[in-house]
Specification:
- It is a single chain.
- The protein has 322 residues and is α/β, with parallel strands linked by helices.
- The protein folds into 2 domains: 2-160 and 200-227, 3-Layer(aba) Sandwich (Rossmann fold); 163-199 and 232-279 and 297-312.
- It is 40% helix and 17% strand.
- It is built from 13 helices and 13 strands.
- It has helices at residues 13-22, 54-60, 63-68, 83-93, 128-145, 177-184, 203-215, 217-220, 235-245, 257-262, 266-278, 285-291, 299-312, and strands at residues 2-6, 26-31, 48-51, 74-77, 99-103, 152-157, 159-161, 187-191, 197-198, 200-202, 224-227, 233-234, 251-255.
- The strands form 4 sheets. Strands 3-2-1-4-5-6-11 form a 7-stranded parallel beta sheet, with helices on both faces. A two-stranded parallel sheet has the order 7-10.
- β5 (99-103), α5 (128-145) and β6 (152-157) form a beta-alpha-beta unit.
- α1 (13-22) crosses α7, α4 runs parallel beside α5 (128-145) and α6 packs across α9.
- The longest helix is centred in the middle third of the chain and has 18 residues, at 128-145.
- It is globular and about 60 Å long.
- 47% of the residues are buried.
Length: 322
């Protein structure tokens, strides 16, 4: 098939593009610039690259038409953040593509009542990002089920991890000093009792799910799926596991969130609150059953690859993992 990937050079695209090329698809990669993808791979040599500023072109009303005119069988949209942008794309693609696969987020759930949360749980999203992605999902799935609508699938990743970028740490933020403290036996302050959860997924496992969605269209169309590792991590257990990588026992102190906030930067505290207030723990039973999704990486394995890369990149100076 001819597959157009919007936002192709990001975290997911670095793994998805080689998968699609290897499967024999004709791939067109759309990105804001011609910057190198997060993950270099020979597959990029056989991909058509097109630059587009989506925000500017959406405002001008030209982006969706450009995508439709490419004549794709499948469009994979990794960077849609507003319902209005999704509406423009769908209106242009209607009757012209076989399938649209859109990237959502497990934050569409907000704070869950029961865990692991399933795709059909009542949605209570909060925050601009979660609300926006929930609105996109609702629109696309309704569109998919109406006569003559664009056949659509929505995939909801967790905290995307892997080599090439910072990942969510055991304090629920991106502060690199957290890894240093755990690796060297220094005290780490965690919020509350450290029992809130985070749910990671390796970028290649996300790419796997996108590939499976276009290969199993009869099962996938009209559905949304969680794309995460098998199990979420508690902050406390996450910290203890990371310390163990370096032959240490985690030295942890637990403080109420307001006390924790006072001991970290505003940016890190805000990120922590975003994560622990949601405490995501998502089921992948539906993705396993209908897509055949089988994550290769556990949460800890996905994070370990990221930490190893941060060391190689010079952003962390740690002893080798044991």
């Amino acid at each position: 098939m001819k597959v157009v990937v919007i936002g192709a050079t990001g975290h997911i695209g670095g793994y998805l593009i080689p998968r699609l090329v290897s499967a024999g698809h004709n791939v067109v990669a759309i990105s804001r610039g011609l910057q190198a993808p997060y993950r270099a791979h020979p597959a990029w040599d056989s991909v058509e690259r097109i630059t587009a500023d989506r925000a500017a072109e959406d405002s001008a009303g030209t982006f969706a038409g450009r995508i439709a005119d490419l004549g794709a069988d499948v469009v994979i949209d990794l960077v849609c953040f507003t319902r209005s942008s999704a509406v423009q794309l769908v209106n242009a693609l209607r009757g012209r593509v076989e399938l649209l696969v859109s990237c959502g987020t497990i934050w569409v759930h907000g704070s869950a009542t029961e865990v692991p949360v399933t795709e059909d749980a009542i949605r209570r999203p909060w925050g601009e990002y979660g609300i926006g992605k929930a609105e996109i999902e609702e629109f696309l799935l309704h569109e998919s089920r109406r006569a003559g609508g664009v056949r659509s699938v929505v995939l909801h990743p967790g905290h995307i991890s892997g080599p090439g970028w910072k990942v969510i740490n055991p304090a629920g933020n991106l502060d690199l000093d957290v890894w240093e403290k755990l690796a060297t036996g220094r005290e780490l302050v965690l919020p509350n009792f450290g029992l809130e959860t985070v749910h990671h997924v390796h970028a290649d496992d996300v790419a796997q799910a996108f590939q499976r969605a276009i290969e199993r269209q009869s099962e996938a169309v009209g559905n949304s799926f969680h794309v995460v590792s098998e199990r979420a991590l508690t902050l406390r257990g996450f910290a203890e596991a990371v310390a163990g990588w370096f032959g240490r026992e985690a030295v942890l102190r637990f403080e109420p969130f307001d006390e924790f906030r006072a001991q970290t930067s505003p940016e890190s505290a805000a990120a922590t609150l975003d994560h622990i207030a949601r405490s995501p723990s998502a089921s992948i039973d539906k993705a396993k059953r209908l897509l055949g999704y089988t994550p290769r990486y556990t949460s800890l394995e996905a994070v370990a690859e990221a930490v190893d890369w941060l060391q190689r990149d010079g952003q962390l100076t740690l002893a080798p993992r044991q």
